[in-house]
Amino acid sequence: MKLNSLLEKERNKWKDVSCNMILPLFIGTAVYVLKKIISLPPIIVNYLPDGLWAYSLQSCLLIIWNRKINVLWTAALLMFCAGFEMLQKTQLLSGTGDFYDFIVYSIFITTALLFNNIFSFYFYKTKPHAPNT
Asked: Is residue 132 one of the residues assigned to a domain?
């Protein structure tokens, strides 16, 4: 009985990873490929892949921490995103250094956090978690 329970838990984790990490990255990659084939609105091409990347990374952190919100790691992710855009703005990294990119990162990170309790219950049948500091 314990083996079945363990297998079910691993299956649910794989479903969580597939839905909240792999699928967003796949969609973001598809946008990059499709923009060469068909005309997509600039807002989709310029911001959706970045947002999906941020959502996927925040989801990864949540899954690693068993769907418990770790404030320190979430703050580190936001600081990383801000730093990444600043390095682009100063041309130390290639890119545009767009403030709107950071806004998009923040929105998608927040979306992952807002849906955390729903996915926690859906995949693991656990009650809502309070943030960990």
From this structure: no
**Is residue 21 a part of any domain in this protein?**
yes
Q: Which amino acid, residue 111?
A: T
What is the rounded distance in angstroms from the CA atom of residue 118 to the CA atom of residue 112?
A: 10
Range of the domain at 60: 10-124
Contact 93, 87 (CB under 8 A): yes
Q: What is the pTM of this model?
A: 0.89
Q: Which string of DSSP letters, residue by residue, matches 82-117? A: HHHHHHHHTTSSSS---HHHHHHHHHHHHHHHHTHH
Rounded to whole angstroms, how far apart are CA atoms 22 and 19? 6
7-36: per-residue pLDDT in tens?
888 999 999 999 999 999 999 999 999 999
Give one DSSP letter per residue of 4-64, joined into a string: HHHHHHHHHHHHHHIIIIIHHHHHHHHHHHHTTTS---HHHHHHHHHHHHHHHHHHHHHHH
Burial class (CB in 10 A: 0-12, 13-18, 19+), 36: exposed
